[in-house]
Amino acid sequence: MGKTGRILTASSPRCEIILFLGQPTELKALVRTSRIAVFDEAQTIQDIGAILKAFIDTYPETQIIATGSSSFDLANKINEPLTGRAFEFTLHPLSLSEIRNAIPDFSLSSLYELLRLGSYPAVVAEKDVRTKEDLLKNLATNYLYKDVYTYESIKNPRIFESLIKLLAFQIGSLVSVNELAQSLGISRATVEKYLRLLEQSYIIKIVRPFSRNQRNEIKKAFKVYFLDVGVRNAVIGDVSALPERADRGFIFENFFAAERLKTLSLETFSPPLMFWRTRSGDEVDFVEAQGDSMRAYECKWSDTDGARFAAFSRMYPQAKTIFVSPENLLAS
């Protein structure tokens, strides 16, 4: 007998069921003639990978969509049994283009609201500002970490959450595993494990340095960005309005990083999002390089801040350089 799970079919309303899915015929009786069946939080269903494999092999005319918020556990239970039978998609928070398509009168103030509260669908769809903030707080404190706590051995949740807060204060800056370990009083190996779990659960993204083995380039450091800036702001307990905030430039840089990751995830063979920095302090916020094609992005809060591409362009004259601010992001 499997655990309690949820199945949605194209012809029936949402319903809670007890799954008896040992045989494909038993699942077929639930799906009936529907061409599409969706399992939400599929990682909570016992032996889900083997169950879906048997069903797909027996009834290939029915398309199965398995979703789950716990990426690492869902992957462990599904990927191996379904090798060659499944396609994997990552559902990010809403992209700027999706939101603008849904809101015809989207403006600079609307963008500031995204930079403040983020792009999760429930938050974006809510009209009441106080309710938006409550939804975000619940998302950041109760929902995002629950899978890590459920499926991984976190001996000290307070240390884990303290690490998240330290990372939230360091967006856009070089991150040192040794410094994090010292600040938290834990081992380097534990910090690395927690970073891996945070990335696997789509809370953060680790961005590595770009280098073509040019002299003076940093090659080993990394930066951390949150996949949703609203979550980052909630983690540090500051969802105050833009553009008066002192950290507005870092928030915008994080927002743009998340937007690029959403765009790149749509490409079959996409370049990694990276940053560039030299030991002498020259830097470019983001670099995307694939073969001879190269794009470099510099994020600034205003057009008057100026962009710093001179050193990078000397080393990589073939690269297309792009300056990004809130105003020209909306104009693009």
Provide structural commentary.
- With 332 residues, this protein is α/β, with parallel strands linked by helices.
- The protein has 2 domains: 4-78, no CATH class; 96-331, Winged helix-like DNA-binding domain superfamily/Winged helix DNA-binding domain (Arc Repressor Mutant, subunit A, Orthogonal Bundle), CATH 1.10.10.
- It has helices spanning 24-31, 48-58, 71-78, 96-102, 108-117, 121-125, 129-143, 146-151, 157-169, 177-184, 188-200, 229-235, 248-264, 310-315, 326-331; strands at residues 4-9, 15-18, 36-40, 63-66, 204-209, 223-226, 274-277, 283-290, 293-299, 320-324.
- A 6-stranded mixed β-sheet has the order 6-5-7-8-9-10, with helices on both faces.
- Strand 3 (36-40), helix 2 (48-58) and strand 4 (63-66) form a beta-alpha-beta unit.
- The longest helix is centred in the last third of the chain and has 17 residues, at 248-264.
- The relative contact order is 0.09.
- Residues 1-21 have low confidence and may be disordered.
